[in-house]
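tool_log.txt
---
The assistant was asked to compare two proteins side by side. It first ran the structure predictor on the initial sequence, then on the second. Raw inputs and outputs are pasted verbatim so the downstream comparison step can read them without reformatting.
(1)
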Amino acid sequence: MNGYDYIIIGSGIAGLYTALLANEHGSVLVITKGSIDDCNTKHAQGGIAAPIGSNDSPDLHFKDTIKAGDGLCDEEAVHILVNEAPDRISDLVRLGVPFDTMNGAIALTMEAAHSVPRILHAGGDATGSYIEATLSRRVRDSKIKVLEYCLVTEIRVTEGKVTGIQALDLRSGFILEFPCRFLVLASGGAGHLYKYTTNPDVATGDGVALAFKAGAEITDMEFFQFHPTALRLPGVPPFLISEAVRGEGGILRNVDGYRFMQDYTPEGELAPRDVVARSIIFEMRKTGSDCVFLDVTHLPSKLVTTRFPNIYKFCLDHGLDITRGLIPVAPAAHYMIGGVKTNTWGETSISGLFAAGEVACTGVHGANRLASNSMLEVLVFSKRIVERTSGGSADKSPVKRKETRVALPERQVERVNSPVNRRALQEIMWHQVGIIRDEKGLTSAVETLAAWQKSLPEPADRPGFELSNLVLTGRLVAEAALMRQESRGAHFRSDYPVHSPEWEKHITFVAV
């Protein structure tokens, strides 16, 4: 076969939005290991940050993003993000995304670490689901080819340029080959590295592992964001309780009913996510509890039920009326800040390979993602990928980030007798490479992961490939966390609890 102009791996907002734009410039194949609807996007409750309010500006949004990024944001990328935001929101409106309105204008709400209300939402707390449904419908109505239940197992590279992919048809077991001119990784994150996560089952680090094995540069992997407030009920999978709940006035209390956040930071409940997550962990340890509580009982019931209908219904279905009772919450792995290193056009270190969304590291998030900037990042940089590949941009922007470039260390490890399975991996990552880290735990983790890497059999099915990808991605996270001897943003070392000026740089893994 002649192949495709574009192959896009993943069917979240990054994959679908890029596909719709690319469809105007050539043939497009979207390939996804589940159904087109299996993705992180539809779980995104908070919304999209954009400086479109009368009291807002790109400059103010820029400052908030830089502050949250804790010294590691790529300023050029952030300038692009905030200045192109209004046009990308207009694109979604034209595509039919029904953002919530108030008095005829798009409604804006507040989230932690934003200085003004700038979060657009749809269906109250169903923003991701609304956007995913809109884009999915558009893709299904187009000539875009969608291949579901098909797992990409290898990126084909010849003389430094992408030539196509190899994939496993999960229903037939056949090995498939697809040539292409451009390959866009839009495969999402790696939340299932951890015991507790808000991510769906598909978030297994596939894109990072594929790219690294193909020779692409991987950066900022030590920065993994933990959402402070995931529902913690016995027997119930972690369910995201949106940042916007605190933005609307939700209060965090410990098991004794005490409002504790002011003890840790003057910003209280609206501090950046890493601060709130660590504060909750410290408070849980102090009180000997496995959760804290989010209190919205003082807010008008109508506000709670109309602004957060999905959260209200989910909790009610599990026996909790949040307008009357406290919500038990604890942190959970939420967002992979690092990933495949790209420039401001989504280009990676391999010609023809691009990355968009959570799998990409564009530099806009720095060491700690500002809430609701991720969906905006998708829109802005997916658009730029298609501009670049369709000849709309002639310049090739180099990545100008201060960095330490390293190969993944060769570790001489003895055979590890512990079992190699997803649950064991998640336990190690949660306890040793989680919210609070130290040298002893990280060293143990990298040695175990390196041993597992060597002992894993050649994968032949989806569970096998996912476990292999998780082990490699987890090792990248742990090795970078061990190397960074400081605390910054979402990376906290109890043995190096403060900033170090010499570490105001990125850690980038390169192929040997």
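(2)
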Amino acid sequence: MELLEQSPFDPASERRIVIIADWLPPDFGAVGQYMQMRAEHLAERGHAVTLVGLATRQRSTGRREIGEGVLTELRLQAKPVPRGSLVTRLAWTIWTNLRLVWKAFPAMRAADGIVFTGSPPFLIHLLVPLKFLWRGRLVYRITDFYPECMIAAQDKPSRLLTTLLALTNFWRRRVDRFEVLGEDQMRRLHEEAGIVRDRIALVRDGSPVAFRDDDVAEPIPAELAGSCVLLYSGNYGIAHEVETFIEGYRLHHQDGSGRVRLWLSATGAGAEEVAGRLTALGLPFHRSKPVPLERLAGLLKAPDAHLVVLKDSFVGFVMPSKIYACLGSGKPLVFVGSADSDVDLLSRKSGVPYWQVSCGDPQALTAAFEALADRSVRS
């Protein structure tokens, strides 16, 4: 796994590392999962790591020795991100970021290196202005781009967000090092944010689970039995394509063979929209909650294929982390999104049966469903 093979820090000269993330396991959050894995690996290499993140249950402090180092985990209790207005989300973000920085402050003062991510967003507006207080290098693992994701989600240009983007890029140019998840993100960061390439490293996530021959697959839901099961797992949010999928799925069931059926094991605004619209159209699907990490391998080995979707406006700003585990399962994959995304790059290199469908082309998606169903019958 590429994430675990690379480190910007030397344990001999940069032993004390602080990592700030959002939701840590067992809470659901891809960034938190990967940052916990990063922290464990750094500890194995001999670092003293402090991982600061969020928990929905209760705050806690834990310390464990791992390999040649030690990992201290500091969890702050927090309410889930409000999904109402932009104002309430922004207020939650500001308050949460202040709490995270305050909790991590003593460790950051003594740290040789500080890693922060794009989730929660806008931590950069606290950490970089205070950079004179940190003696260690500041590394930004830019998971999701903010405010670019907010801009991409808007129907009309926003002067406030445009100003915020200019300020964010001002602070970005003062970060010591960046880690990006894909070549598409590297292009965005270099060409649009003005970051020199020498300060950007491509460090992919990899799969959070290992697949074994003796993994027991999750049972197929009864209403999907006998069909070609297409699984969408994880988060389905504002960055994920809906329109092309809904129309292509409708055409497949109303004008095509209808052999492919969706298993929606997901949370997020997109998941709610997809479930509501499929129900209104009377189209068959099964909805379930995301499974805990220890059951993820079994879930991903259960379907006939996986579905990944991404809006064109979010290419290079968002990298669906689920792609690594989906490809690791060895199952076929259908991607609704641009060929400019690293999802397409990774999928073509993986060797799994793969269909890429451009956003806005539901007929091509219907054809992909038929080809997938034909392959499933032959298998």
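---
observation on (2): The two ends are 29 Å apart (CA to CA). Residues 86-110 form the longest helix (25 residues).
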